[in-house]
Amino acid sequence: MGKKSRVKTQKSGSGASAVVSPKETMNLISELLQKCSSAAPSAGKEWEEYVQIRGLVEKICKKQKGMSIVFEGSREDYFPDLMSWAQENGASCDSFTVANFGTEGYGLRATRDIKAEELFLWIPRKMLMTVESAQNSVLGPLYSQDRILQAMGNVTLAFHLLCERANPSSFWQPYIRSLPQEYDTPLFYQQDEVQVLLGTQAVQDVLSQYKNTARQYAYFYKLLQTHPAASKLLLKDSFTFEDYRWAVSSVMTRQNQIPTEDGSRIILALIPVWDMCNHTNGLITTGYNLEDDRCECVALQDYKENEQIYIFYGTRSNAEFVIHSGFFFQDNAHDRVKIKLGVSKSERLYAMKAEVLARAGIPASCIFALHCNEPPISAQLLAFLRVFCMTEEELKDYLFGDRAINKIFTLGKSEFPVSWENEIKLWTFLETRAALLLKTYKTTSQEDRSILEKPDLSLHSRMAIQLHLAEKQILEKASASGRAKRLHFEKKLEEGAPLPVYEESDSALLENTDADAKRPLILRKLEEVEEGQEIQAEEHSHILNGEKAVYVMDMEANGEPVQEETQEKHRKKAKGEHHEPVQANC
């Protein structure tokens, strides 16, 4: 057990030992920083830029070969120490053990029968790695003087992890040694595997993720070599790109939000043991109990002894799971694809449409989502499309007509069409738009299925093809749904069916249903998070459970770590020993 010694020399191709020149490495780092800090490439040049950045990174990695910290033995060897450490520090570990679930990787196995909603797991604050614990650690002096660390909690956590990993006597060593040494996030893909993602909606985020990570690595490499506050950091002389990539992925697949001790702020944290749980569909069942100052998790469902215990990570699309968690979830009930729509400012009726949309709280141009289930569009997208397809007379009615204010609130309700003609227009638009998006792919769904049957397909390429197929299936369903709805409303128009009219007595239809009201606050708007920047999830809302303030949490509650652009939160670990991208390997 323990760490292997660091090696600061590298073997040349002939087998001779050659000392790596610090100046040579620094020159490459400077070139990388300059390349990653340049203006965004023109449309269609993103892949070319990625290849150039990757080439520089690979040159740097070649010179740093052998310098990273590696723990002896397999990851599984450290699980007993993890569980002992957790129990010694006040965590509950009596109801489960860590087990290997094959294609799903490591997870928690019940050691007794557990009832749904039963509290079976809690982790005290002192075990968590947080931005606060980073500030109070050896990283503190550098944190206090670097604005990037202060502004980006996820980057701080990544460095906190690296600093503690480099310290053999760290309190968190049992946890750190239990983490995967590699992940299945796209940061670990081979170049040809990333290329398979071309054409998917995920690829732009993947390329940006790599560029941002490379830029941050170059920035912090130079900072560690020159800043006085970094002089005592153990990782100063062995800070490799592979180390940073590992730390980034460890945080990206595990981070969550918890409240500070006084409950006044939200900070990022890594939660040992709990982060071993794999994902399934359901509701969020984890919260933070401020009174007892611990993370608590209740069972999502009944579990028999020896069954795997799952939790729900949140309403993530498969693109988000692949990019930030390193797995593809086959039965994802919340899968969706993005669709960017907007009212053209050159359109004659732009001002009127923008005003109606503004009254409904919807931007005139934003990103919506097509969902894998029926209906394929959200209430917000339905409202947008209705306004998008309105005639001048219909717009005037919703701006100045009788009960215009009340009518605005019916825009997202399928029960109250604007007109049969309007419904026909909007569903025709959806049918056509989805069909056009399908034509942008180079392969068909059937061809993707054939590729997935190949036995020699790598894990990462398989995930990429699964993502292609999932996106196409959603678009196919949306187009088919649009056609069915169009035909339905054409029949209504042909029959001269009366149009449903909103009455004051219908106001209950505009309120949340009982089922929705019972859902945790954080869940109620998550399906709308990506659909317009002005629509924000209530990420930090808390609910009261008796006299205890319990913060509802979902895995990856703060977006991609180590990426400057704020994005929707994501969750889960990857890599390890699984061979099929069914779920994450903890």
UniProtKB/TrEMBL annotation:
Residues 558-586 are annotated as: Disordered. One of its GO terms (molecular function) is protein-lysine N-methyltransferase activity. Its main location: cytoplasm. Its EC number is 2.1.1.85. InterPro entries: Rubisco_LSMT_subst-bd (IPR015353), Rubisco_LSMT_subst-bd_sf (IPR036464), SET_dom (IPR001214), SET_dom_sf (IPR046341), SETD3 (IPR025785), SETD3_SET (IPR044428), SETD3_SETD6_MTase (IPR050600). Residues 94-314 form the SET domain. This is protein-histidine N-methyltransferase. It comes from Sander lucioperca. The lineage of its organism: Eukaryota, Metazoa, Chordata, Craniata, Vertebrata.
